[in-house]
Amino acid sequence: MQTKKILITGASSGLGKAIVDELASEDVIITIIGRNKDKLAQFKQPNVRVIRGDVTDDLLINKVVSELKPGIIILNAGATPVMAPLDEQTWESFTTVWNTDVKAGLCGIRAALKTPLPPGSRVVIVSSGAAMIGAPLSGSYAGAKRMLWFMAQYANEIAQKKRLGITFQTLVPMQMIAETDLAQTVAGAYAKLRGLTVEAYIEERYGEPLTAVEYAKLVHAWLTDPAYLEGAAYGIRKDTGLKVINY
């Protein structure tokens, strides 16, 4: 891996934590931002540094990015959507993901462009396969994840116009991973309607399950192989691995 400094948001649990655990094997310094003190305390690796704070805090993100100037930023932070059909959503519940995922994405993207990051840097915005097919029980989740995809595109255009040498890419998990809290909530709501367990629902929908460790290894390969610098968005599935997607 060419860079020595990596910043990851949303890394205190789930897929974000799996990525940290995987990348910590590299000769890099990883900085993570999170709000939960207990979850942050679990990171014992000598090359992992933690900052307690809110990733939707524009001032905090600007300060961290301007001081670190990381070669890679992974914007992974996101809220768990309120699971209910549209007619049972309030505006507050409907916009939960929009006010967290999209706001955090905007803060991170703005900081990368305004600092700016060193030429050759890479900003990864984590989206979701829901951005392609919708998610009827999760409020604005699908729309929010699609907006992040658009934002990566817009950021690339700005970086190219200003000749910053920064690459923005979207990473799209194309299947839910049962061991994460997000999948337990989201897949759990759909599984309940079918009378299935979360694991059975995920297997029925996606085929062979993908583990968090396998996901993190694919992300590791994606970040270290220069061939993957081409392509604006990559999907991850167990059966296809890493694949360029256009939407």
If you had to describe this structure to a student in words, what would you say it looks like?
The chain is an alpha/beta fold and 247 residues long. The chain has two domains: 5-175 and 210-244, Rossmann fold, CATH 3.40.50.720; 177-209, no CATH class. The chain is built from ten helices and eight strands. An eight-stranded mixed sheet has the order 3-2-1-4-5-6-7-8, with helices on both faces. Strand 7 and strand 8 form a beta hairpin. The longest helix has 21 residues, at 141-161. The chain is globular and about 50 Å long. The model has no long low-confidence stretch (mean pLDDT 94).
Short structural description:
With 247 residues, this protein is an alpha/beta fold. It contains ten helices and eight strands. The longest helix has 21 residues, at 141-161.
Keywords:
alpha/beta; 247 residues; 10 helices; 44% helix; Rossmann fold; 2 domains; 8-stranded mixed β-sheet
CATH superfamily of the largest domain: NAD(P)-binding Rossmann-like Domain
Say how many strands there are. 8
Distance between the amino and carboxyl termini: 29 Å
Radius of gyration: 17 Å
**What percent of the residues sit in helical stretches (DSSP H or I)?**
40-55%
What is the helix/strand order? Answer: EHEHEHEHHEHHEHHHEE
How much strand content do the residues show? 15-25%
- Quaternary form: single chain
Give the overall shape. Answer: globular
Whole-number count of domains:
2
Given this structure, which CATH class of the largest domain is correct?
Alpha Beta
Biggest sheet overview = 8 strands, mixed
CATH architecture of the largest domain: 3-Layer(aba) Sandwich
In spatial order, strands of the major sheet run 3-2-1-4-5-6-7-8
The parts where pLDDT drops under 50 for at least 5 residues are: none
- CATH overall fold name of the largest domain: Rossmann fold
